[in-house]
Write a structure and sequence with these properties.
It contains 8 helices and 5 strands. The protein has about 170 residues and is an alpha+beta fold. It has a domain of about 100 residues. Strands 3-2-1-5-4 form a 5-stranded antiparallel beta sheet.
Length: about 170
C-alpha cells in the first residue's frame, strides 16, 4: 500500500508544470524508482512541486514558509548548471551540495528531453558554456580547479559564463 501511495504521489508531483525534474537520492543508493526524491523546477529555478521523499531529504522544502521557494535556497551551488547538465546526452548523476553541508546524488532530467542527436545541433558557444559550467560543478564551485582541468584561465571562465547569448541581448 505504501508503494502505491508513493507512486501516486510521484505521478501527482510530475504532473505539476515544470521544465526540470531533479531525481534525488543519498550517495550510494540506487536512483530511478519510486524511492527517489523529486523536485520540479520551472525555467527560472523556482520549485513547482516536490514529493515527501525530497521534503525529508531537503529540510528547506519541508520548512518553507508556504511562499515561492527558489532552488538556490535549497542547494549550495548555482542552479543554472542543473539545466545544462540535463541537456547533455550522456549526463549521469551529479553531486549536489545542500546548505547543511550534506550532499545528495542528483539526476537532472529536462521536461520533454530531446533525443541525443539534438545536442549536436547546439551552437558551439552553448556547448562550450555547458562544458565550463559542468566542470565548475564537478570542481565543487572551485573556479581555479575548473580552469586547471579545462586548461584555461580563471578570467576566461568568468568571461564565458557572464556572456549573454545573442538572442537574449
Amino acid at each position: 500500500m505504501a508503494q502505491s501511495a508513493r507512486s501516486i504521489e510521484n505521478a501527482l508531483t510530475l504532473a505539476r508544470p515544470h521544465r526540470l525534474v531533479l531525481r534525488l537520492n543519498w550517495p550510494g543508493r540506487l536512483r530511478g524508482d519510486d524511492d527517489d526524491g523529486l523536485v520540479c523546477l520551472d525555467g527560472d529555478g523556482w520549485v513547482t512541486g516536490s514529493n515527501s521523499v525530497a521534503r525529508a531529504m531537503v529540510a528547506e522544502l519541508a520548512t518553507g514558509a508556504g511562499g515561492p521557494l527558489h532552488c538556490s535556497e535549497l542547494f549550495a551551488q548555482p542552479w543554472e548548471p542543473l539545466f545544462d547538465h540535463a541537456g547533455l546526452a550522456d549526463a549521469g548523476p551529479l553531486e549536489l551540495p545542500l546548505w547543511s553541508g550534506l550532499r545528495l546524488d542528483a539526476l537532472p532530467q529536462a521536461q520533454g528531453a530531446s533525443p541525443a542527436g539534438a545536442a549536436a545541433r547546439k551552437p558551439l558557444r552553448d556547448v562550450e558554456i555547458a562544458l565550463i559550467r559542468k566542470t565548475v560543478v564537478e570542481a565543487r564551485g572551485n573556479v581555479m580547479e575548473a580552469a586547471r582541468l579545462l586548461g584555461i584561465s580563471r578570467a576566461t571562465i568568468y568571461r564565458k559564463l557572464s556572456l549573454k547569448s545573442p538572442k537574449n541581448g
